[in-house]
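WARN no homologs supplied; continuing
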Amino acid sequence: MTYHDETFQRVSIAEAARALGVSPSTVRRMVKAGKLVGESVLRPQGSAYVVRLPMDASTVAEGPAGTSQPPRRAERSNASGQEASADSVQVSPAEQMMAAWSASVLTPILAPIVSELTASRETIRQQAETIGELRAENRALTASTATHPPDPTAAPFAFRWRSCAPWLLGVLAIVAAVGLLIVPR
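OK structure emitted
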């Protein structure tokens, strides 16, 4: 029987975030989603929450002076199984894990957002064109009205009875009331 923890190491959330190249909140989300295994352990100082990471995904290994080790790199190989050439790009397991995670988790979430953003930009562009056309039309109408002087044959002042109707009705009501008071019975 093999002991499975030999292929894993227990690290804090902050160390796991550094090892994977993500934020601590992303590590917590990955534990909640089941992509990483987290557990609470008892220590002399109290309980602590640790995350189990594969040994080859580690970029943090504490030395005697408390310094961290540089990240391990894995070489890519082509489909035929041959080793990569010297000028090929090396990708760490953490980077491979993040690429797989982003393809499986982020792409379905971001694809609708990106398409909505593209549609919104197109709508904004069309509205900007419409606003430009309306401004040009407004300038043309303003210019055409400014060039025509007022008609000298038009009456300078046209009395509007409708605007005075409430006042006139009020005056008539007062006169009628006073008339009724003065007339003997």
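The two ends are 126 Å apart (CA to CA).
OK
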